[in-house]
TrEMBL record:
<feature type="domain" description="Erythromycin biosynthesis protein CIII-like N-terminal">
    <location>
        <begin position="22"/>
        <end position="221"/>
    </location>
</feature>
<keyword id="KW-0328">Glycosyltransferase</keyword>
<dbReference type="InterPro" id="IPR002213">
    <property type="entry name" value="UDP_glucos_trans"/>
</dbReference>
<dbReference type="Pfam" id="PF06722">
    <property type="entry name" value="EryCIII-like_C"/>
</dbReference>
<feature type="signal peptide">
    <location>
        <begin position="1"/>
        <end position="23"/>
    </location>
</feature>
<feature type="domain" description="Erythromycin biosynthesis protein CIII-like C-terminal">
    <location>
        <begin position="245"/>
        <end position="375"/>
    </location>
</feature>
<keyword id="KW-0732">Signal</keyword>
<keyword id="KW-0808">Transferase</keyword>
<protein>
    <submittedName>
        <fullName>UDP:flavonoid glycosyltransferase YjiC, YdhE family</fullName>
    </submittedName>
</protein>
<dbReference type="GO" id="GO:0016758">
    <property type="term" value="F:hexosyltransferase activity"/>
</dbReference>
<dbReference type="GO" id="GO:0008194">
    <property type="term" value="F:UDP-glycosyltransferase activity"/>
</dbReference>
<dbReference type="Pfam" id="PF21036">
    <property type="entry name" value="EryCIII-like_N"/>
</dbReference>
<dbReference type="InterPro" id="IPR010610">
    <property type="entry name" value="EryCIII-like_C"/>
</dbReference>
<dbReference type="InterPro" id="IPR050426">
    <property type="entry name" value="Glycosyltransferase_28"/>
</dbReference>
<comment type="similarity">
    <text>Belongs to the glycosyltransferase 28 family.</text>
</comment>
<dbReference type="InterPro" id="IPR048284">
    <property type="entry name" value="EryCIII-like_N"/>
</dbReference>
<dbReference type="GO" id="GO:0017000">
    <property type="term" value="P:antibiotic biosynthetic process"/>
</dbReference>
């Protein structure tokens, strides 16, 4: 079986699919990751074969306009939903024609796309092969089909397609079922196996348990600073928690300069895969990105969430609703509010551990790979 995984140039969306892609490779199938040129080197660091399709699109600028509506054209600032749909349609326009050509020349049997990469279902329709959606968090577009079909209309017309089945034959879902919205197609639950990029096991963290303070990981993913440095609140959070927690800041090398002056007992680790660090922590404070949230829940850690973008708000609300964490208002930087929330977060440990147990009981990537084999076999009959 020959499987194309496709995503646009956003690393966290790629990382969500890496374990399943490797499971298919381990089972003896051919796997190829097709993405915009900007993400090509990141794909190579996963060890998976890669191919560039289409051209890059300035997605950070579009998300900046959504996060800071005053920079949008008059009358459009509050229209986040239509702007997001327009962005995803523009990315599909940039990728789909070359993705179709790649799939035809490579003789793909199946296309798996992360749920916001609309070039995936378009290419699958053009090639006449099954399409599977792969979620990375809550299903952001499951109920937006009418708007998406309208936005994709010109592209489908150019490719000679009467329509596109955006739901696909199945939806692979790593998100806890109680935190998810209904899927538009058959749902295949997937055990979340964290992939946070390559890296080394970190050295032992300073400060043992003698202080009596909880060790808390503060991390702000890769998205907020990429959209606008004002959204990167990790340093501010670390200062707010001074004296209340042993803070470990997990950042990239590029983010370190954004932290500002830190408390003397705060510890910074650079470019360490998060799943290697969190077993040494008791809670996580973050922006609500899906990968960070799932990596924390896979360890049974409660979360303090300060969302930045609309999908972060949705993830944060879902976690708080399940009792596995506390969500503060979007963009909150009030140190007193952040510090006061920490005891409530630590009290959410039992609920977070319950979600950990649920995730651990789900089918492994290897089991889901076998299910995809069956889907393709049924499609060939």
């Amino acid at each position: 079986m020959r499987v194309i995984f496709t995503t646009w140039a956003w690393p966290s969306h790629l990382y969500a699919m890496v374990p399943l892609a490797w499971a298919l490779r381990a089972a003896g199938h051919e796997v190829l990751v097709a993405t915009q040129p900007e993400l090509l080197e990141t794909v190579r660091h996963t060890g998976l074969p890669a191919a560039a399709v289409g051209r890059d699109v300035d997605a950070p600028a579009a998300f900046h306009d959504i996060a800071f509506p005053s920079s949008a054209p008059p009358g459009e600032g509050a229209r986040g939903g239509p702007r997001v749909v327009g962005l995803f349609a523009a990315i599909a326009e940039a990728m789909a024609p070359e993705l179709v050509a790649l799939g035809r020349g490579w003789r793909a049997d199946l296309i798996v796309s992360e749920s916001t990469c609309l070039a995936g279902p378009v290419a699958a329709a053009a090639l006449g092969v099954p399409h599977v959606r792969h979620l990375f968090g809550t299903d952001l577009l499951g109920n937006a089909a009418p708007f998406l079909h309208q936005a994709l209309g010109p592209l489908c017309d150019r490719l000679g397609l009467p329509g596109v089945d955006l739901a696909g034959v199945a939806t692979v879902d790593p998100w806890p079922s109680g935190l998810q919205v209904p899927a538009p197609s058959r749902r295949i639950p997937l055990r979340y196996v964290p992939f946070n990029g390559p890296g080394r096991l970190p050295r032992p963290l300073p400060g043992g348990g003698g202080s009596g303070l909880p060790r808390v990981c503060v991390t702000w993913g890769t998205t907020p600073a990429r959209v606008d440095k004002r959204l990167f609140l990790a340093g501010r959070v670390a200062r707010a928690l001074a004296g209340r927690a042993r803070v470990v800041l997990a950042v990239t090398a590029e983010q370190r300069s954004l932290l500002g002056e830190l408390p003397p007992d705060a510890h910074v680790v650079e470019s360490v895969p998060l799943h290697l660090l969190l077993p040494r922590c008791e809670a996580v404070v973050c922006h609500g990105g899906a990968g960070t949230v799932l990596t924390a829940l896979a360890q049974g850690l409660p979360l303090l969430l300060i969302p930045c973008l609309p999908d972060h708000v949705r993830h944060s609300a879902a976690v708080a609703g399940a009792g596995a964490g506390v969500a503060l208002p979007a963009g909150t930087g009030d140190p007193e509010l952040i510090a006061a929330a920490l005891p409530d977060v630590l009290a959410c440990g039992a609920a977070a551990d319950g979600l950990r147990a649920e995730l651990a009981a789900r089918p492994s990537p290897a089991a889901v790979a076998r299910e995809l084999e069956t889907l393709v076999q049924l499609a060939d009959r």
